[in-house]
């Protein structure tokens, strides 16, 4: 099956009857059958504590601790504080990355939590950040990244023991 056919299959799986995108349970289960290289969570954190979002030290520590809570391995950390306000930063982890952009003047932060393999649970990091930023109105979109089909991915890190021929 070529990449184009796999993409059409995935789109069909995720479409509700009538061709409209949606999240009926059967479609979600079928989409989860497809092997993916990673999971990407997009967090919209609205109605957060502006003081926490405006503190470089707090944001940096929260992001690093979120990675550690999820049992990720931190490789590198880079953050920048803008004037008059706002912070952008990234925690590079062996399993991928966590990134944030804050708008304290709006009580808002956009966060990406991207993990490869099945060992790290990005939802743990997301829950931790929602709590740390005292977010009253969070939303999370989960995307499977690197959906390459139904076959096992030989180099994907999983909890299962590898099978060698």
* SSE arrangement, N to C: HHEHHEEEEHE
Using the coordinates shown, work out and report the CATH topology of the largest domain. S-adenosylmethionine decarboxylase
Largest sheet: 6 strands, antiparallel
Range of strand content: 25-35%
- The largest beta-sheet arranges its strands as 2-3-4-5-1-6
CATH classification class of the largest domain? Alpha Beta
In the CATH hierarchy, what is the architecture of the largest domain at level 2?
4-Layer Sandwich
Low-confidence stretches: 12-23
According to DSSP, the number of beta strands is 6
CATH superfamily membership of the largest domain: S-adenosylmethionine decarboxylase
Overall body shape: elongated
**Rg (C-alpha, Å):** 18 Å
Provide structural commentary.
The structure is a single chain. The chain has 165 residues and is of the alpha+beta class. The chain folds into two domains: 1-34, no CATH class; 36-145, S-adenosylmethionine decarboxylase (4-Layer Sandwich). 30% of the residues lie in helices and 30% in strands. The chain has five helices and six strands; from the N terminus they run H-H-E-H-H-E-E-E-E-H-E. It has a six-stranded antiparallel sheet with strand order 2-3-4-5-1-6, with helices on one face. Strand 4 (96-103) and strand 5 form a beta hairpin. Helix 4 (56-69) runs antiparallel to helix 5 (122-132). The chain is elongated. The model is unreliable at 12-23 (pLDDT under 50).
């Amino acid at each position: 099956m070529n990449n184009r056919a796999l993409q059409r299959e995935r789109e069909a799986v995720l479409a509700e009857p009538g061709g409209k995108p949606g999240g009926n349970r059967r479609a979600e289960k079928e989409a989860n059958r497809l092997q993916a290289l990673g999971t990407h969570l997009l967090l919209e954190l609205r109605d957060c504590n502006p003081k926490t979002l405006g503190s470089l030290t707090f944001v940096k520590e929260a992001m690093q601790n979120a990675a550690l809570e999820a049992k990720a391995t931190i490789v590198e950390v880079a953050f920048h504080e803008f004037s008059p306000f706002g912070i952008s930063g990234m925690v590079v982890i062996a399993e991928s990355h966590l990134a944030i952009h804050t708008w304290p003047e709006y009580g808002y932060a956009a966060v990406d939590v991207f993990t490869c393999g099945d060992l790290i649970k990005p939802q743990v990091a997301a829950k931790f950040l929602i709590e740390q930023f005292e977010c009253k109105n969070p939303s999370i979109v989960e995307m499977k990244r690197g959906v390459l089909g139904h076959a096992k991915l030989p180099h994907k890190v999983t909890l299962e023991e590898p099978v060698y021929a």
